[in-house]
Each structure stands twice: as C-alpha cells, then as structure tokens.
Amino acid sequence: MTKRGRTIFIKAVSVTAIFALVAVSVFFGYRFAERQWIYPKKYEEIVVRHAGAFGLERSLVFGLIKTESGFDANAKSSAGALGLMQLTPSTAEFMSRKLGMKEYDLFDADTNVLFGCCYLWYLSRRFSDISTILAAYNAGEGNVSAWLKDKKYSSDGVTLNVIPYGETRFHVKKTLKYKAKYKSIYGL
Fold first, then answer.
1. Closest CA to 60 of 183, 185, 173, 160
2. From CA 58, how far away is CA 10, in angstroms rounded?
3. Which residue is catalytic, options 44, 45, 68, 103?
4. pTM listed for this prediction
5. C-alpha angle 112/116/117, rounded to 5°?
6. Disulfide engineering: 168 pairs with which of 13, 114, 121, 139, CB 3.0-4.6 Å?
7. What is the overall mean pLDDT for the chain?
8. Hey, how many other C-beta atoms are within 10 angstroms of the C-beta on 187?
9. Cα–Cα distance between 2 and 16 in angstroms, integer?
10. Is 55 helix (H, G, I), strand (E, B) or coil?
11. Tens digit of each residue's pLDDT (9 = 90 or more) over 84-111
12. Active site (annotated) includes residue 68
C-alpha cells in the first residue's frame, strides 16, 4: 500500500470511528433524555410508598400519573379533576371516608397519590382486568359496570372487548404504553 493509500485508509477509519462514537453518544444521550425528561420518576418516594401499601405496580402508578397530569401536582382538568392523579372531588371524598381522613388537599402530592392508589386498589377489587380498571378510573365505575353487562362491549362480563368512549379508549392505551415504558426503562 502506498503512503497516499495508507493516509486515505487512516482517514476513512477515523471518520468511521467518529461516526460510530457519535451514534453511540446519540443513542445513550437519547436513553438518558428519555429517562429524565420523557419518563421522569418525580415523586418517586411517594409513589413507592403508596403503591407498595396497596400492592400496586409502581410502573402502573407512574404511567397513570404521566397520563393524567404529566407530573403536574397543580393540574386541573375541565371536568374538575385535580392534582397528580386527577381525582374528582367526589372520588376524593369517597377515598377520604375509606381512609378516615376528614381534611385533605388534592394539590398535595402525597395526599393525591395516596387517594389515587387507594382508588386503583378499590377498582382492582371490583374489576380484574387492568384495561377495565383503567377504564373505570377514567370513565367511572358505574359506566364500566354497565358496559360489562352489555354484550356489545363485553362477551364475558369481566373484560371489555370494546370501550365505547373514545377518550377512555385513548386513556387506557396511553397509560398501558407508559406503564410498559416505565417497566422497561426503570425495571419497575
């Protein structure tokens, strides 16, 4: 190989090595960004404590919080749902009675996650399928109970084959996607 040939070869190898390093950096940088910004673990201590107390998967609770509020403890929906887990005042009142709490603040992250986890646990005692539980969380247990009795929506009275509300269908799909991401990224 001539001197010029070796120089061209070395430059080609150098350029390839640089591209490889850039590709690895971009990949790992993206994974880091995905972990930190796209799928944050904000309020981790609170989620771990309350999910554990109610026997819930942390990935489910993180996924639901991401779907419901995007980790905004001061979130308010047009339907009047509040806080991280977007609890309606009526659901919060129901949970406060179950937990024996007379006073509470739904914008307090600890209280909101406590109530949200308690409500998920309660729904998991009424419904056995995770998609059905999430549908009840979003659309209300009364609606889901009615859907389960209707052959258009459920063939077995336990699992929803069709979720009639588009918003609820999207909510369930999105939450399950986020749950899977939290499980794969963090091993929760």
1. 183
2. 51
3. 68
4. 0.80
5. 120
6. 139
7. 87
8. 8
9. 21
10. coil
11. 999 999 999 999 999 999 999 999 999 9
12. yes
